[in-house]
Specification:
This protein has two helices and three strands; from the N terminus they run ααβββ. The protein is of the alpha+beta class. It has a single domain, classed as Trypsin Inhibitor V, Chain A (2-Layer Sandwich).
């Protein structure tokens, strides 16, 4: 299957949009990998794709061909979760 998109057309987009685009190109073995690294004043947007890995490669052109069952890993940025422990003893 031709990928239909280049690396530059996918990186920086929202991960759901990228997932849908690749799914519509017949790629079904898609995995999402979240990086919880967004904090105050972060340069990244929530859901922004950092990289797309197809059969072990992150650089590809629109015309490149891959089997439909190729493993696709979409790595994206997500808000960092902060947990604050609270006990009654702190009152």
């Amino acid at each position: 299957m031709p990928i239909g998109y280049s690396t530059q057309q996918l990186v920086g987009k929202n991960y759901r949009e990228v997932e849908n685009r690749l799914y519509n190109q017949a790629f079904k073995n898609i995995h999402l990998k979240s990086q919880k690294d967004i904090y105050v004043n972060s340069i990244f947007k929530d859901g922004e794709v950092e990289s797309v890995l197809i059969n072990g490669t992150t650089v590809f052109s629109q015309q490149e061909m891959y089997p439909y069952d190729s493993e696709v890993v979409i790595t994206y940025h997500e808000k960092r979760e902060i947990t604050i422990s609270f006990t009654h003893g702190n009152l």
